[in-house]
Amino acid sequence: MSWGFLRDLLTGVNKYSTGIGRIWVAVVFIFRLLVYIAVAENIWKYELDEFECNVKQPGCENVCFDHFFPVSHIRLWALQLIMVSTPSLLVVFHVAYRENREKHHNQKLYKSLGEIDGGLLCTYLISLVLKAGFEIVFLFLFYKLYNGFKVPRLVKCDIRPCPNTVDCYISKPTEKMIFIYFLVATSGLCIVLNLSELSYLIFKYSIKCYLKNYVKKHQ
Length: 219
Prior knowledge:
Layout: H1 4-14, H2 19-43, E1 52-53, H3 60-68, H4 73-85, H5 88-105, H6 118-145, E2 154-157, E3 166-169, H7 173-218
Antiparallel strand pairs: 1-3, 2-3
Helix pairs in contact: 1-2, 1-5, 2-4, 2-7, 4-6, 5-6, 6-7
Keywords: Cell junction, Cell membrane, Gap junction, Membrane, Transmembrane, Transmembrane helix
Family: Belongs to the connexin family.
Domain Connexin N-terminal: 42-75
């Protein structure tokens, strides 16, 4: 599939982000999207063809593969990348709403259309919570679906139509495990960045409101 739409989306949101948000965009684009396209897709490209069991019973390999890999790693990563990027659309839509509103009233209603304040601040905070939430949910899904983040060299399968307990071998397990750890680590880094940006914005605007009220009180 083409990932151009994600690149355009992240680039468009980047101009409304804080410094931490720009680091998040760089991590997603360089360490996740590019690694996914350049390397990870090729490693898991023929995962079913390279999954071998020591029996030639028709259908045995297929049911065993489906049991141990109910969802392909690569497709789940693709879904994760899409889900963690789409909350940024909320910010884009909110800025578009501001632009529409100014055109409709034919006057300037905001100091800066892309300035993070008021309603746009709430939208931005919600997008950060959703991003961090999706990351956590997908890490949990990975862990539960594959019984951890390790890739075993050998799995034993006794599901019908296999005639007995058979040994099945996974291709390139060490290489796959290295990239799983890498992608899990970058996912964890993205969670830290999202929560850091969330804390920073809440702290910044809490101080701003406090100082504003303090000045009003003493005037």
